[in-house]
C-alpha cells in the first residue's frame, strides 16, 4: 500500500465524520496539520498529524501507523485510534515503545460560561503577579523555555501567532510563570494549552490564565475547546465552567 498526502481533505470527511475533535477540524479546514491516506480519490484509511497528535480513521493500515511526516522533528507522538483495529495495530507495530493512556474529552458547549465568575477569577490575581495577553516580547520568552513553548509552538513565528493565535500569561517581575494559549486553531475557535512553571503550581495561576483566555475568546466569538490529559486538567476545566464528556484511549509513542 502507498501513502499519499491529501491536500484536499474533502475526500476524508466520511472517514472522520462525527469525531468531535477540534484538532481534526483544524486539519480538515486547512488551518493546521497534515493529512494522509491510502488513496487520493477513494480513501478507506486516513491519518491526520497535528502538533504532537496523530489521529487514525477508517480501515487500520500499518503503512499509515508507520508514516511520519517529513517535517515532524520530535520522536514523541500521541496516537489516537478511531477503533479497536487501529489500537491493536499500534500495539503490534510499536510494542514497548507504545504506552496506552486514557485522556478525557470535555463537552463542547457554547453557553456554559459564567462571565462574572470568570472575571472574578482573573481579578483575584494580585501583585507581584499580573495577567497579560501574549505580545511579541512575551511570545519570544514563551518560546525560549521548554516548559512553556507548547503554548505557541504550532505557529510558524510571532506574525503567524499574532494573526491567528491568542493567549494570556501570568507574569512575575517580567518573567512568564504560567500561561493559557491556542495550541491549535480552527475556523470557529481554538484548542487550549495550559502550562505553569513547576515552582509556581497550585497558586491558582493556571485557573486565572484559563479564565482570561476564555473571556477573550468569547469576546472574539471563538470557542475555547478543552481536552484533558489527566484528572487534574478535568478538575481545572470544571472550575471554569466546562463539563466532562468521556474517557478515551490514546497511545504515547517514543522513538517515533
TrEMBL record:
PROSITE patterns assigned: GNAT
Record-linked InterPro entries: Acyl_CoA_acyltransferase, GNAT_acetyltra_N, GNAT_acetyltra_YdfB-like, GNAT_dom
GO molecular function, one term: acyltransferase activity, transferring groups other than amino-acyl groups
Domain of life according to the entry: Bacteria
Residues in N-acetyltransferase domain copies: 123-256
Pfam families membership: GNAT_acetyltran
Protein name: GNAT family N-acetyltransferase
Lineage, top ranks: Bacteria, Bacillati, Bacillota, Clostridia, Eubacteriales
